[in-house]
Design goal:
The protein has 309 residues and is α/β, with parallel strands linked by helices. It has seven helices and ten strands. The strands form two sheets. Strands 1-9-7-8-5-2-3-4 form an eight-stranded mixed β-sheet, with helices on both faces. Helix 5 packs antiparallel against helix 6 (237-256) and helix 6 (237-256) crosses helix 7. It starts with a helix and ends in a 6-residue tail after the last strand.
Length: 309
């Protein structure tokens, strides 16, 4: 090899090395560290960090300004899916959507995925260019007796077909929720679980896990971390899809073996095996018919029992 060629190769290698250093430096600058926005010492009265070092988000623990600075650079889009059929549509969907438009991820692009069993007229509200709605009408014949089973089956189909291409993060919420305060970017993560407002204050041995060993949802006595609510689940689309697929497999397996557990118990088994990367405190889904404990500083979402609105 001539000296000229060796020199050209050396220059090329140095150039590539320089570009790699620039990329690595820029990537480091863009990376959001937990310590940049999360301070668990501000809430010594509650659990703020799990045994696997995932943050538990309570009012006072997060710096929203630092989070906003990061996520606005990322040009983030967040999806929110809600299912409403029958009386759920008539009683709960309008308050859910009205409050979500005001408090869910304000200032960010949001796509609302509304799954209903009949054609729907959206409530009249002020136009927001950052918000868009997709109304998906599901034929009534598809709503089998197991609402959660069909909900997860349809959600999985939509994630695979289009949602995974449209949003960076996705939340699935129950229709009987009404937003009270901002539900912002402090909730975003790869896998997000909602702590159950009632069971959070109980000991692990008393939590209502599935205790039948033959069920896929089984968690033995002496094991378990928290009890998670089925009202909210979130994360990046592929992670939410993974949960829906595992849930569907579990339901089918149990049905073939003459067993039937609840959606929430399958959810808890999933998060027992696949630890969430962020947990939302009971402030993010609180039943207002209960007395508000001193630990709940700021109720983000009110979870209303059916037929109470």
């Amino acid at each position: 090899m001539s000296a000229k060629k060796r020199m050209l190769m050396l220059i090329s290698c140095l150039f590539l090395l320089l570009m790699a250093k620039v990329y690595f430096r820029n990537h480091q600058e863009e990376e959001l560290l937990l310590s940049d926005w999360f301070n668990p010492r501000r809430r010594m009265d509650v659990i703020t960090t799990t045994d696997w070092l995932a943050p538990v988000i309570w009012e006072g623990t997060f710096d929203r300004e630092a989070l906003e600075k990061y996520y606005r650079k990322q040009n983030t889009t967040v999806g929110l899916a809600v299912f409403a059929v029958g009386s759920l549509t008539d009683q709960y969907l309008d308050p859910f959507l009205q409050s979500a438009r005001k408090f869910f991820m304000p200032g960010y692009r949001v796509i609302f995925y509304v799954m209903v069993d009949r054609h729907l007229q959206l409530p009249e509200t002020d136009y927001n260019p950052l918000q868009s709605f997709q109304i998906h009408v599901i034929g009534e014949e598809r709503w089998w007796s197991n609402f959660d089973l069909m909900r997860m089956k349809i959600l999985a189909e939509h994630i695979q077909e289009h949602i995974k291409y449209e949003v960076d993060f996705l939340f699935i919420m129950s229709a009987n929720l009404v937003f009270q305060n901002e539900f912002g970017v402090e909730t975003l993560s790869t896998s997000v679980a909602q702590l159950h407002g009632w069971w959070y204050f109980w000991k692990t041995k008393d939590l209502p896990y599935e205790r039948r060993p033959m069920s896929v949802a089984y968690i033995p006595f002496g094991l378990g971390d928290f009890y998670y609510a089925g009202t909210i689940i979130g994360g990046v689309p592929f992670q939410v899809l993974d949960f829906t697929q595992e849930y569907l497999k579990g339901v089918v397996w149990d049905a073939e073996n003459g067993l039937n557990s609840t959606y929430e118990k399958y959810l808890n088994k999933y998060f027992f095996l696949n630890k969430p990367t962020k947990l939302l405190s009971p402030e993010y889904s609180w039943d207002p018919t209960f007395n508000i404990p001193r630990q709940v500083w700021n109720m983000k979402i009110a979870q209303y029992p059916t037929d109470s609105l």
